[in-house]
């Protein structure tokens, strides 16, 4: 039990809780809006049963009392008394100094570089499929680090769908539910050649972009072709630390991306290479030189700075100190958060075979599954 000192402002508009977390202030209208009683929230799913218009504009706290970890507040003019858990209030407190620099990341995010090489997150397909705790731990690594491998899977056409079934649903695109990654004659996409590819995010020309990519190995006897991942958030923060102006210009102005490689397909998007939320949180990276269109949304005077920043971002991405490299054998896969982690492939020879299948899914499904597993539901 955590005991808090309570103080209600004279006009009833602000409640202050003083405890081990320090003084935390809450507005009366916020508290009333976040009431958890059955008349405000549906017991089964937690969705609100009232709209903000149903809460009086002059809502204020008329009385406050605490018993153990429960805080009971009476709101005027409704005359309604609602119980709050003080631990819940402490976890959802918004009274904090906003001293975060642009490019900050959420607490769940852990950035990384090549030092992760010998500790790359990995799960066993059988264990992750059968054991909820193993699945939770594997998904938590993707949420924290932006990628994870999976080993010991079946070697069969379409096995990657079983990976997606562990956390969500396939997002079908113009490439179909899945696409093949192997050498082709006159390919429509450079991914289907034996060339090495610069680390990139996939499908930056889509809006919204697929937020999860799965690549699953079925054959791998060709020399080379190792997979590589780079933490785009670590890249962006390194650029910011080296030159804040360059970070700013890439996050403030939109790049353009385009793909028109097949009949009836012309995909275009306009988004910054470094995407920030309005409060400066780093929420996305889009980088794909192959799909970059003419950049036309940068003012004339800023274009030289933009290109200098763009060049430097590419150099940081190419720095071996930023990459984690591994080879996929048949029955192995890796999953990446496509809004954060760039992936690449080393070049491989024409002898032997190399066949991977890929598909897309989304992080909302992954985070939902993880939240359910963490809650033990």
TrEMBL record:
<protein>
    <submittedName>
        <fullName>DUF971 domain-containing protein</fullName>
    </submittedName>
</protein>
<dbReference type="InterPro" id="IPR003819">
    <property type="entry name" value="TauD/TfdA-like"/>
</dbReference>
<dbReference type="GO" id="GO:0016706">
    <property type="term" value="F:2-oxoglutarate-dependent dioxygenase activity"/>
</dbReference>
<dbReference type="InterPro" id="IPR042098">
    <property type="entry name" value="TauD-like_sf"/>
</dbReference>
<dbReference type="GO" id="GO:0045329">
    <property type="term" value="P:carnitine biosynthetic process"/>
</dbReference>
<dbReference type="InterPro" id="IPR050411">
    <property type="entry name" value="AlphaKG_dependent_hydroxylases"/>
</dbReference>
<keyword id="KW-0223">Dioxygenase</keyword>
<dbReference type="InterPro" id="IPR038492">
    <property type="entry name" value="GBBH-like_N_sf"/>
</dbReference>
<keyword id="KW-0560">Oxidoreductase</keyword>
<comment type="similarity">
    <text>Belongs to the gamma-BBH/TMLD family.</text>
</comment>
<keyword id="KW-0408">Iron</keyword>
<dbReference type="GO" id="GO:0046872">
    <property type="term" value="F:metal ion binding"/>
</dbReference>
<feature type="domain" description="TauD/TfdA-like">
    <location>
        <begin position="120"/>
        <end position="360"/>
    </location>
</feature>
<dbReference type="Pfam" id="PF02668">
    <property type="entry name" value="TauD"/>
</dbReference>
<keyword id="KW-0479">Metal-binding</keyword>
């Amino acid at each position: 039990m955590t005991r808090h000192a309570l103080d209600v402002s004279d006009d009833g508009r602000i409640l202050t809780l003083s405890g081990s977390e320090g003084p935390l202030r809450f507005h009366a209208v916020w508290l009333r809006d976040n009431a958890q009683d059955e008349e405000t929230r549906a017991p089964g799913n937690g969705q609100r049963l009232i709209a903000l218009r149903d809460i009086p504009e002059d809502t204020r706290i008329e009385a406050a009392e605490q018993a153990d970890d429960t805080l009971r507040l009476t709101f005027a003019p409704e005359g309604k008394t609602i119980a709050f858990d003080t631990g819940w209030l402490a976890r959802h407190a918004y009274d904090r100094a906003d001293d975060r620099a642009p490019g900050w990341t959420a607490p769940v995010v852990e950035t990384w570089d090549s030092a992760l090489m010998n500790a790359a997150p990995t799960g066993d397909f059988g264990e992750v499929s059968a054991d909820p705790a193993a699945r939770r731990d594997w998904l938590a690594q993707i949420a924290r680090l932006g990628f994870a491998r999976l080993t010991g899977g079946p070697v069969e056409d379409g096995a990657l769908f079983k990976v997606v079934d562990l956390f969500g649903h396939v997002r079908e695109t113009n490439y179909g539910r899945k696409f093949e990654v192997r050498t082709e004659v006159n390919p429509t996409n450079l991914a289907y050649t034996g060339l090495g590819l610069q680390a990139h995010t996939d499908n930056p020309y889509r809006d919204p972009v697929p937020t999860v990519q799965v690549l699953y190995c079925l054959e791998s006897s060709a020399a080379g072709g190792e997979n590589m991942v780079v933490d785009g958030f670590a890249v962006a923060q390194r650029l910011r630390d080296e030159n804040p102006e360059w970070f700013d210009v890439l996050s403030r102005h939109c790049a353009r991306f385009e793909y028109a490689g097949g009949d009836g397909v012309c995909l275009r998007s306009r988004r910054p290479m470094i995407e920030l939320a309005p409060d400066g949180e780093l929420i996305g990276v889009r980088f794909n030189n192959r799909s970059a269109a003419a950049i036309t949304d940068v003012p004339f005077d800023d274009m030289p700075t933009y290109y200098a920043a763009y060049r430097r971002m590419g150099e940081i991405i190419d720095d071996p100190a930023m990459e984690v490299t591994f080879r996929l054998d048949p029955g192995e896969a890796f999953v990446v958060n496509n809004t954060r982690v760039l992936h690449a492939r080393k070049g491989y020879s024409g002898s032997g075979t190399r066949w991977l299948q890929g598909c897309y899914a989304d992080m909302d499904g992954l985070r939902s599954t993880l939240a359910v597993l963490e809650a033990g539901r």
